[in-house]
Design a protein that fits this description.
This protein is mostly helical. 66% of the residues lie in helices and 0% in strands. The longest helix has 84 residues, at 39-122. The chain is elongated, with a radius of gyration of 43 Å.
Length: 205
């Protein structure tokens, strides 16, 4: 499919050089050194020159409009065709975006399910269930069959295991603290709430 264009650039011929000489000669008649006696004459001459300029400019504008008419018509037609292409493209892109958004929602739902399954598998307590999976809700993490890609499952498991590692470290710290309390004669050791800030420090993990 190819747009066919038939036409030739307009060839404009004028008697420019002749008119330029005639104009120079006419304008030279207005050349004078203005004195007090010549002010009125100078103003009249300036008005005549302005009228002459107006005639030339009016002719210029009229001819440009005339010669530009077919070019403007073609420009409008071409823009209409371009607009049709743009609309079709935008319609397609809108459908693609809608499809991808739905797929990402499906992916997020599967990610959440997999996350919950791994929490249960590794017995991660609610306090440590802080893994985020929103960044994994992308098209490439869904197989064509509609299942979750292995790389996504593996990434979630890595994050859950890290949370589990923190949980075990905190439990160990709490046991150590309880032992310290009993060793120093405290019959009722501090509860987790009393030392939560200390327990949650991860620097030494």
């Amino acid at each position: 499919m190819q747009l066919l264009i038939n036409g030739n650039l307009p060839i404009i011929t004028t008697n420019f050089e002749l008119i330029k000489l005639q104009l120079q000669e006419k304008l030279s008649q207005y050349s004078l050194i203005v004195s007090e006696d010549d002010v009125a004459t100078a103003k009249k001459s300036a008005t005549e020159i302005n009228a002459l300029k107006g005639n030339i400019d009016s002719l210029r504008k009229a001819k440009i409009k005339e010669f530009s008419s077919p070019i403007n018509a073609f420009d409008n037609q071409a823009k209409e065709l371009i607009g049709m292409c743009d609309k079709a493209r935008q319609d397609l892109l809108a459908q693609v975006a809608e499809f991808e958004n739905e797929r990402k929602k499906e992916c997020k739902s599967m990610l959440d399910f997999e996350l919950e399954k791994l929490y249960n598998k590794f017995k991660v307590n609610k306090l440590f269930q802080t893994v985020k999976v929103d960044d994994l809700a992308i098209m490439s993490n869904l197989n064509k069959s509609g299942t979750l890609a292995k790389k996504a499952s593996d990434t979630i498991e890595e994050r859950v295991l890290k949370a589990l590692e923190l949980q075990k470290a905190i439990d160990t710290r709490l046991l150590q603290l309880e032992g310290f309390c009993y060793k120093n004669g405290l019959t009722v050791p501090f509860s987790k709430e009393h030392v939560e800030h200390f327990l949650m420090i991860e620097d030494d993990l």
